[in-house]
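Form 12-C: Joint structure prediction
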Amino acid sequence: MKVLIIGGAGMIGRKLSERLAKDGELGGRSISELALYDVVPASMPAAAKMPVKVATGDFPAEGEAEKLVAGGAEMIFHLAAIVSGEAEQEFDKGYRINMDGTRRLLEAIRHSGRTKTRLVFASSIAVFGAPFPEAIGDEFFNTPLTSYGTQKNICELLISDYSRKGFLDGISLRLPTICVRPGKPNKAASGFFSNIMREPLAGQEAVLPVSESVMHWHASPRAAVEFMRHAATIDTAKVGPRRALTMPGLAVTVGEQIAALKKVAGDKVAARIRREPDQFIEQIVAGWPRKFAAKRAAELGFKPDQSFEDIIRIHIEDELGGRIG
Amino acid sequence: MKVLIIGGAGMIGRKLSERLAKDGELGGRSISELALYDVVPASMPAAAKMPVKVATGDFPAEGEAEKLVAGGAEMIFHLAAIVSGEAEQEFDKGYRINMDGTRRLLEAIRHSGRTKTRLVFASSIAVFGAPFPEAIGDEFFNTPLTSYGTQKNICELLISDYSRKGFLDGISLRLPTICVRPGKPNKAASGFFSNIMREPLAGQEAVLPVSESVMHWHASPRAAVEFMRHAATIDTAKVGPRRALTMPGLAVTVGEQIAALKKVAGDKVAARIRREPDQFIEQIVAGWPRKFAAKRAAELGFKPDQSFEDIIRIHIEDELGGRIG
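Section 2 - Result
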């Protein structure tokens, strides 16, 4: 089985490719080739058990999706996207990549005639818009309040329709916010959820711009990779025509995050968090989903992290070689 | 104020244009020109109080939306669509007209810079897919089970996003099934809901293919025109960012329809309904929404018909000149 990861240079793409390369198989089926595609070259996974191809390109460009599909992958992970903030500022760019690119991919698969192609699409909880109930259920409606969320929602709808028509076999996963996100601090409004864990663990100071009562919905990078792997091999007959699933996560407050950090890494590490309230960020975050009741995904075998302590331990293991700074 | 009706030759388009032509105004603003656009020429409304332009074209074709928007309408009713059955059979055609056409219209308005353009879009309860709760609430999720419903849902999302961005001022109305639909019996699976009223009233026999316990969601053509007029003049600040509204209707069973027909037109007329159960149609109809709790629309001033007897009386007044056959 050939596997293609579109968006293979991104954080999840990289972790997924490393896992697949190491395993050499997915759901008991041997992977004969792993193709990694992105706008910049994906890094080569270490010690891959199969040939790995790295390609770059402009995903939504004319003919690009056809070229990708011509590679013959039976399993496609589509993780490529213009992120939320950029899609909001660059309206045309966001629609071109997040919506038109996906549609072209669906069309290319449809016209390839390979109706059994499994497509796993990274959607987002941005398909939901405030006001929310206490916990957002699986049947709560989608009213995105960003262009990014709109684009993701449209892709979900297209994937359900193309799957229903039998053109392909798709599934959309609405991922929680990934925490602890590795790498450098970034300017995303959601960055602090990871910054206040990652930086103190690395011996650095981090800024907390919101109050400790702010609740948010989290999953570790490892959990996200497991969601992808499970979605790739799940019996979609059990999923039925409603192909978009909210992934299970952990709803924790910033205060609970900090308490978990103290427990795992000690008071000295947690003391590296500096409170610097920022009205602007507090306001943005107030419009985000806080908590879900993701029953369908749980029933279908998708598993959340066990605890926020675990989320921190996963970061220490996977990113810090087990050492706290 | 110039008004444009895209889909002006359709049943609702025709009734809306007649009403606007006769009134000469909308929400207290005088209509200086009424433009009717469709794939076939719209009929000229009688005794119009303003100049009426009739144009035909291929709506989603390159440059067509720009041409339409260049007409300078401040108020656009977009009622054009490939209907459900055809969109299901002709996949590309459905997406081209129902999705791409609408998107091109939105882009043309956006690029015209006329941000106050009010766009009233005819959506559909086909954005919902079974299984349903007893009554479908305003916050129930959209999981269309047809390509038509998918396309309508995508248009709703785009219209909300373009409105939120301030490119235009749009609103999407999910219309109930229109009953009594004038004209000839057609082969649509939903046709019988109207056939069993219209044909007996005109002295003809009609076939009822389902059991009398089947419940469905109805509005008269007159109510639909009122929904359009109200949506055209409503304060969208009150609607907020959730621009798609399920219109209020009447949930009645076929048995209640027949009882109403007896009451309004007598047993002799109702006796013209011939029971001819059709498993195939019964099965299709079982997947359709039956009843809604359309609270938001009601709070925003959209009004359903008073009773099914009224729906029948409206048909007799508007289509039969007050005479029963």
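Section 3 - Comments
Chain B touches chain A at residues 91, 129, 138-145, 147, 150, 153-154, 157-158, 160-161, 164-165, 241-242 (CB under 8 Å). The two ends of chain B are 42 Å apart (CA to CA).
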